[in-house]
Design a protein that fits this description.
Elements (H helix, E strand, L loop, with lengths): L12 H12 L6 H5 L4 H5 L25 H13 L31
Length: 113
Amino acid sequence: MQGGPTDHTYYTRVNMTRTIEQILGLTPMNQFDLVASPMRIAFVKGKPPKSNFDPVTHLSNEIKPDSEDPNIVNHLNWYEATGFTRAFPGENRVMHPSEFKISSAPRVADLDD
């Protein structure tokens, strides 16, 4: 937190997109973010401490996302949407959740590791 007065400038999603593009050194994606004003005041209003402009240290993610079997998730989504009244496409009958089979498809490795 920098302290000081609150910035009451009206910003839109396009202003935020333009700001992110400038921070990351990207070229504008279209004419709208090309002419949009970046949110510079929000970052440098008053006299922010010099440490605000230091590079950040990246910390690796230590929390793994849940990995669910897509076959089971697809069946659950289907049956929740149909109220267990229609068989899953390609199957002959409505199945009980305990009957769902774990697919034999290989799982994709977590890219965040």
